Amino acid sequence: MTDRLYIKDGYLREFTATVIGSNADEQWLILDQTAFYPAGGGQPSDTGIIRYDNETLEVTRVISFQDEIRHLIRGKLPSLGQVVTGIPNWERRYSLMRTHTALHMLSAVIWRDYQAQVTGGNMEPLKGRLDFELEAMNAELISEIERKVNAEVAAAHPVSARILSRPEAEKIPDLIRTKVNLLPSSLTEIRIVKIGDLDLQADGGTHVNNTEEVGKISIVKYKSKGRINKRIQIELEDLPYPR
After folding, report:
1. Residue 105, domain extent
2. CB of 105 within 8 A of CB of 195?
3. Comparing C-alpha atoms, which of 31, 53, 38, 41 is closest to residue 6?
4. Residue 212: inside a domain, yes or no?
5. Gap between the Cα atoms of 14 and 63, Å rounded
6. What is the CATH number of the domain that holds 215?
7. CATH number at residue 70
8. pLDDT tens per residue across span 76-132
9. Domain count of the fold of the chain
10. 111 and 50 inside one domain
11. Torsion of CA 234, 38, 4, 21, to 10 degrees
């Protein structure tokens, strides 16, 4: 099993690890610990590089398979027991952290003020979309939502995470705001992400430490996906990356 370093520190830009598994035919390797985020929960995987000796491997995708995290690579596979250095693509990671936090804030505002659950979603660096169980949507409502979300960004809410036992987590009202509960029944511990007093949700992804880091959120498009299903697409302003 791989120790998921990104759960503890989403800002970790470099780490060392030991190779504990690999597959030459499918070009992937497993490390004893990793800061690379595997695709899941609507958040795309990290990319980056892995170095050892005089070799540099390109990490093209990271996936979670049962209890394994597989790093799909281009390059010469290291041997088992080899110590390597992993370097996630920081600009991509930080863009996804900002986007993920922005989508949480959007869902929190719409839940708080309009009691609409999320029915689907997706994200890319600096843009994403959420679908909501809403009957009506118009330009005036969209402008109102955008204004409210950006007010919460400017409020500089701290963002934090903690792990709770499943029984503890399930006592939290409205912990799951998606129409379908995506938490596997096998989970005995649940990670909770808190955004100030605005949002408290189960989530396994990466986030910024403060909502100010999100920057301005623009709702660039909205459309109906059915009688009670409406889609909102957002984009974030391009800001300098923390060095």
Report:
1. 93-236
2. yes
3. 38
4. yes
5. 19
6. 3.30.980.10
7. 2.40.30.130
8. 999 999 999 999 999 999 999 999 999 999 999 999 999 999 999 999 999 999 999
9. 2
10. no
11. -170
Amino acid occupying residue 83: V
Residue holding tokens 């809410």? 157
CA separation for the pair 101, 193 (Å, rounded): 10
Taking the alpha carbons at both ends of the chain, their separation in whole angstroms is: 31
Provide CB contacts within 8 A for 170, sequence distance 6+.
none
3-state secondary structure the chain: CCEEHHHHCCCCCCEEEEEEEEECCCCEEEECEECCCCCECCECCCCEEEEECCEEEEEEEEEEECCEEEEEEECCCCCCCCEEEEEECHHHHHHHHHHHHHHHHHHHHHHHHHCCCEEEEEEECCEEEEEECCCCCCHHHHHHHHHHHHHHHHCCCEEEEEEEEHHHHCCCCCCCCECCCCCCCCCCEEEEEEECCCEEEECCCCCCCEHHHHCCEEEEEEEECCCCCEEEEEEECCCCCCC
Q: Tokens 């009670």 appear where?
A: 228
End residue of a domain, out of 88, 115, 133: 88
Which of 88, 115, 138 terminates a domain? The answer is 88
Contacts (Cβ under 8 Å, ≥6 apart) of 31: 2, 17, 18, 19, 20, 69, 71, 84, 86
**Based on the number of CB atoms within 10 Å of its own CB, is 127 exposed (0-12), middle (13-18) or buried (19 or more)?**
middle
Per-residue pLDDT tens over the stretch 148-190: 999 999 999 999 999 888 888 778 776 666 655 556 666 788 8
